[in-house]
Amino acid sequence: MKEKLSSRPGWWLPRVVLAGGCLTGLLNGGCEWKTTKDDYDYTPPPGKGVLVVDNLTASDLDVYADGRHQRQVDAGDDEGMELEPRQYSIVLIESDGWRKWTGDVDVLEGRLTILQVRPAQQAEEYDVSITFD
Fold first, then answer.
1. DSSP secondary structure code for residue 40 in this structure
2. What are the helix (H) ranges across the chain?
3. Domain 33-132 in CATH 3.40.350.10
4. Which of 79, 87, 95, 133 has a CA-to-CA distance to 44 between 20 and 30 Å?
5. How far apart are CA 107 and CA 14, in angstroms?
């Protein structure tokens, strides 16, 4: 049986933190979304690509590529991972293991593959947009 969101202790805390961060950003001149590789400080080495996970959530994320833990990306931060160019099965899991996302992602040689991660409408999932730069 699926657990109701409101029955989880502290279910509201990440939402309050995220709302407070957005309000602070708006009061300080608005939010600046990263849209090009110039906004990300990563340069792929020769023969490799970089998978960038831009964590726009209020929780830390664990990043897995083909079942191997790559790193943890702190809330509100981005991290780049140098990988061989090919398709990977990517899994993003909230640090407490509650919210998740899975998908097949192409890493291209000499390019950035950017995953922008946001909370989804469904409490158990993330909304992930994938772009290349």
1. S
2. 13-27
3. no
4. 95
5. 30
